[in-house]
Write a structure and sequence with these properties.
With 394 residues, the chain is of the alpha/beta class. The chain contains ten helices and 17 strands. The protein binds ligand LLP.
């Protein structure tokens, strides 16, 4: 069997199916809970139709993502469009496709959407993104719900912007949108968000303002340390938190925008060891993948579990329960680094792996979210290819 050219992404679509089933089972317990998949996490055309067929909607942040969602079969009535800087063509693309709603982040954006919708003789569904001033306990670069960052409309401004929106002829105000950050594992952060939303809804109700839609954003984290132990995130606790703490008004639908928790664990970045280099006091495993394929370690100091799989997965028995096991117990300590001309191009420092040699294959786990979509062509490298672990096609 031929060896695939590394580096490449390998997706376990069977695990993706099981993850989506778990989501559907949990939301099925509650009334009007709607999940939109955050396409920014992974827009691979092999995965999107699977997610669409499982019944999820799509959360998009660009015109390109709206086009990809429509192409993958997501019904426009299940598409939401967020982002602080929507350009005119992107707004037109969204209106042209009659998406469910724009998550609007500022007053000037609302005005522009109203103007473009008037020109196109359309009515734009809108949720206002409110900055809830809830700090998530996660990496500072992926926290979004606090006053100092660029996202959303300040709490003190919300009522005024709602009144503005209500007076615009081409805006149909559907509700409020929130998002506090990503890779959140402390459920108390979501409890805090739910309580803040209750307060906001109560204050608005006193003024006679109620909404059919509350969108709580995404953010549920995954277990990067032990992907084998927790291949499917704890959706049960996550949705139960909102059921228990968020006061849902009669007829109101609660929307979620999950990205990482849907796709992170089903993807691995497969890379080959090029050289073992003895440095001063350390040993480098130089691999053929770099920050161009997976930037998370370089950008956020993110940890991804690295496993030696010693042979190309294409040559192993193709099964979705592929254990990525180590064949050798002669452990060595390595810094696993990429080939890019940047000192931050490091996947891991001081990790223990079976003795490696040129040609050995490593799997960088939990790379299904914000891996392939954040890949770049820096150093004029080609974008990574991808394969389905569950397909026998080579
Ligand atoms: N909704 C909004 C408004 C968002 O900004 C995001 C993610 C999501 C939903 C999906 O969040 P998730 O369920 O995936 O946590 N590149 C970073 C993550 C950036 C997240 C950006 N926003 C990383 O690799 O960790």
């Amino acid at each position: 069997m031929q060896m695939r050219q590394t580096p490449y992404y390998l997706y376990d679509t069977e695990l993706l199916h099981r993850t989506l089933e778990a989501v559907q089972t949990e939301i099925g317990k509650y009334n009007n809970y709607v999940v939109h998949y955050a396409i920014k996490a992974n827009a691979n055309p092999m995965l999107l139709p699977i997610i669409q067929r499982a019944g999820l909607g799509a959360d998009c942040v660009s015109g390109g993502e709206i086009e990809a969602a429509v192409k993958a079969g997501f019904h426009p009535s299940k598409i939401v469009f967020a982002g602080v800087g929507k350009s005119d063509w992107e707004i037109r693309t969204a209106l042209h496709n009659d998406i469910f709603c724009f998550n609007v982040e500022s007053e000037p954006e609302l005005e522009v959407i109203n103007q473009i919708a008037a020109q196109m003789r359309k009515s734009a569904g809108v949720c206002l993104r409110v900055n809830p001033e809830v700090g998530a306990h996660t990496h500072a670069h992926i926290t979004t719900g606090t006053a100092e960052n660029k996202f959303g409309i300040a709490l003190s401004e919300v009522e005024r912007v709602i009144c503005m929106a209500q007076q615009m002829d081409h805006i149909r105000l559907r509700g409020l949108h929130f998002h506090i950050g990503s890779q959140i594992l402390d459920m108390n952060d979501f409890v805090e968000l739910a309580h803040r939303i209750n307060e906001i809804q109560e204050q608005l109700q006193q003024k006679g303002i109620t909404f059919d839609t509350i969108n709580v954003g995404g953010g549920l984290g995954v277990d990067y340390d032990n992907p084998h132990a927790t291949p499917i995130p704890d959706f049960k606790s996550y949705f139960a938190v909102f059921h228990e703490h968020l006061r849902q008004r009669p007829g109101q639908s609660i929307h979620f925008e999950l990205g990482r928790s849907i796709v992170a664990q089903c993807g691995s970045l497969i890379t080959r060891v090029l050289y073992i280099k003895q440095g001063t006091g350390r040993q480098f495993a130089i691999v053929d993948a770099g920050m161009t394929e997976l930037i998370r370690p370089a950008l956020y100091g993110a940890h991804h579990r690295i496993e030696s799989i010693t042979a190309d997965p294409a040559t192993l028995q193709l099964t979705s329960t592929l254990p990525f096991s180590t064949a050798d117990d002669d452990l060595q300590t390595y810094d696993v680094v990429g080939p890019i001309c940047e000192s931050t191009d490091v996947f891991a420092h001081n990790i223990r792996l079976p003795r490696l040699q040129r040609g050995h294959i490593l799997a960088i786990r939990s790379a299904g979210a914000y891996g392939e979509t954040m890949a770049s062509q820096y150093n004029l490298r080609p974008l990574p290819k991808s394969y389905d672990l569950c397909s026998t096609e080579i």
